Amino acid sequence: MKVHIQHEGQIFVRDVALADTFWLRLSGYMFRPTPHVNGLLFEPASAMQTTFMWFSLDMVFLSADNRVVKILRGVKPWRHTWFYRNTAKVLEVPAGVVPASLNVGDTLTISPAS
User: What is the pLDDT of residues 37-85, one digit of tens each?
Assistant: First the structure.
């Protein structure tokens, strides 16, 4: 299943793949020279890593009700994040995709891609 992610009524990433199984969460963007999908939404998740990745990512940590808990921009390969309290899911997109206007406390809209 794929979803679109919106902020303030504007879709900023389309066709995000859900990483909602153990194997999808484990593999993500690993071992790929370039992104194979526009974004990945990991659920459940509260911390991330970029081991075996070859490009930088933006990460948005979300609560269960899609409120932004933490934003990490330009996370380089071979890094690990902290565990962020109240995080239920994490959006990963290639670096530079997350809008500059997105702030902690904002709420994202996640809707099925048609």
Answer: 999 999 999 999 999 999 999 999 999 999 999 999 999 999 999 999 9
DSSP state of 23: H
Q: What is the DSSP string of 61-90?
A: EE-TT-BEEEEEEEEPSS-BPPP-TT--EE
2-112 is a CATH 1.25.40.10 domain: no
- d(C-alpha 30, C-alpha 4), whole Å: 22
Q: What is the DSSP letter of 55?
A: S
Every domain of the chain and the residues it spans? 2-112
Give the whole-angstrom CA distance, residue 65 versus residue 62: 8
